[in-house]
Design goal:
By secondary structure, the protein is of the alpha/beta class. It has helices spanning 7-26, 81-92, 115-121, 131-152, 225-236, 254-274, 280-290, 300-316; strands at 36-37, 42-44, 64-67, 72-75, 99-103, 126-129, 167-168, 174-177, 180-186, 196-200, 205-213, 242-247. It has a seven-stranded mixed β-sheet. It has a single domain, classed as Ribonuclease Z/Hydroxyacylglutathione hydrolase-like (Metallo-beta-lactamase, Chain A), CATH 3.60.15. The relative contact order is 0.11.
C-alpha cells in the first residue's frame, strides 16, 4: 500500500522534521548563557572565556542585540551558523520583530561567521563592517576562519558558509534604525586593521569588539599596542555608561581603563627594558610581576610570552 500525504499533512511533517533538526543543531550552545538586559533597548549574551572547542561548539564571543520600535539589530552574532541559530532562538524569547541589520566588529571569524543564520532568517538583512574587513574576508580570511573553526570544534561548525558584509562603513557614520542610532567608530590599526566599535547612542552602550578584553587574554598578532590604546582613548571620551568587550564581562568605563592599563604596562615596560638591551625572555618575569591584577585572566600563562614578543617588535619599529 502506498502512503500518500495530503498537502497540509505533508507541510506539518516537513515542519516537524525541520524544527527537530534545527533544535538539535543549536542544542547546548547557549543553554547556560541567558540574554542580559544592559539598557532600555540593548541585550547581551556573554560567552565562555575558553577558546573554540567541541564543548562550546565555537561559541566564545559576546553577541549583542538591540530591539527598536519595529525591528532588531544584531552586533557580532558569533562564530558559525549553529551559533547564529542559537542566538536567534534567544532573541525570539524577547521579541518576534524582524532582524533587519547586522554589524560586524572585525575580520576574525569567531565574531561574524554567524551572519549566515540571519541571512537565512531574512535575505534582505543589511550587514555592515569596516571596508577593510570586507576586503580581507573576500580575500581569503573568510575561508581560513571557516576551516579553523571547523578544526577547533572537531566538526561542530560544519555547514557554515561565509555571509560577508556588503555595506562598508565610514568613521563616525550614524545609522538611524527606527528609534535607535548606531554610530560606528572605525580604527586604522588597533586589534586589527579592520576594527569597528559600535555606539548605541540612545542607550549609552559601546560594543568594542576585540579592541577590548576583560578577564581574558587578548591576541595582538595582527594589531598594534599603540593603536589599541588610541582606540581606548576614543572610547573613553564617549558619552557611554556600558561597555561590552569582545570577550569577557561587560561593565562601565573601568573595562576600558583596565584594558588600557594592561596594554600600557606591557608596552611601556618592554620599551624601557629594550633600552637596557634585554631580550623578551628576560623581560617576562619583570612584566608578569607588574601585571599582578591580571594574572587570573583566562590563558594568562599561555599568552603573556607572545604578547611581550609582539610588544618588543612594535617598540623596535616605532
Amino acid at each position: 500500500m502506498k502512503l500518500v500525504l495530503k498537502p497540509s499533512l505533508l507541510f506539518i511533517t516537513l515542519l516537524f522534521i525541520s524544527t527537530t533538526a534545527f533544535a538539535k543543531d543549536v542544542t547546548g550552545i547557549m543553554d547556560k548563557f541567558e540574554a542580559q538586559k544592559l539598557a532600555e533597548h540593548t541585550w547581551g549574551i556573554f560567552g565562555p572565556l575558553t577558546a573554540p572547542n567541541p564543548e562550546n561548539k565555537g561559541f566564545m564571543n559576546n553577541p549583542v542585540f538591540v530591539i527598536s520600535d519595529k525591528s532588531v539589530v544584531v552586533i557580532d552574532p558569533g562564530s558559525s551558523v549553529q551559533v547564529g541559530r542559537a542566538l536567534l532562538a534567544k532573541i525570539r524569547k524577547q521579541t518576534d520583530k524582524p532582524i533587519t541589520h547586522v554589524f560586524n566588529s572585525h575580520v576574525h571569524g569567531d565574531h561574524w561567521l554567524a551572519n549566515q543564520a540571519f541571512f537565512e532568517e531574512n535575505s534582505e538583512v543589511k550587514i555592515y563592517a569596516h571596508p577593510i574587513m570586507i576586503e580581507e574576508a573576500k580575500g581569503g580570511e573568510a575561508e581560513s576562519w571557516i576551516g579553523l573553526m571547523k578544526t577547533l570544534t572537531e566538526g561542530a561548525t560544519e555547514g557554515t558558509t561565509a555571509t560577508i558584509p556588503t555595506i562598508a562603513l565610514e568613521d563616525q557614520q550614524e545609522i538611524k534604525i527606527d528609534n535607535i542610532t548606531i554610530k560606528a567608530h572605525l580604527n586604522k590599526l588597533a586589534h586589527t586593521k579592520t576594527d569597528a566599535m559600535y555606539e548605541i547612542v540612545e542607550d549609552k552602550v559601546l560594543v568594542t569588539g576585540d579592541n577590548t578584553f576583560s578577564k581574558r587574554m587578548p591576541r595582538l598578532d595582527d594589531g598594534s599596542y599603540v593603536g589599541n590604546m588610541m582606540a581606548m582613548d576614543v572610547a573613553l571620551a564617549l558619552d557611554i555608561k556600558v561597555v561590552v568587550p569582545g570577550h569577557g564581562p561587560a561593565g562601565g568605563k573601568e573595562v576600558l581603563t583596565d584594558f588600557r592599563e594592561f596594554l600600557y604596562t606591557i608596552y611601556d615596560t618592554s620599551k624601557k627594558l629594550l633600552d637596557d638591551d634585554m631580550e623578551s625572555f628576560e623581560m617576562k618575569p619583570i612584566i608578569v610581576k607588574k601585571l599582578e591584577k591580571y594574572q587570573k585572566w583566562e590563558n594568562f600563562d599561555g599568552a603573556i610570552g607572545k604578547l611581550i614578543s609582539v610588544a618588543v617588535l612594535e617598540a623596535e619599529n616605532e
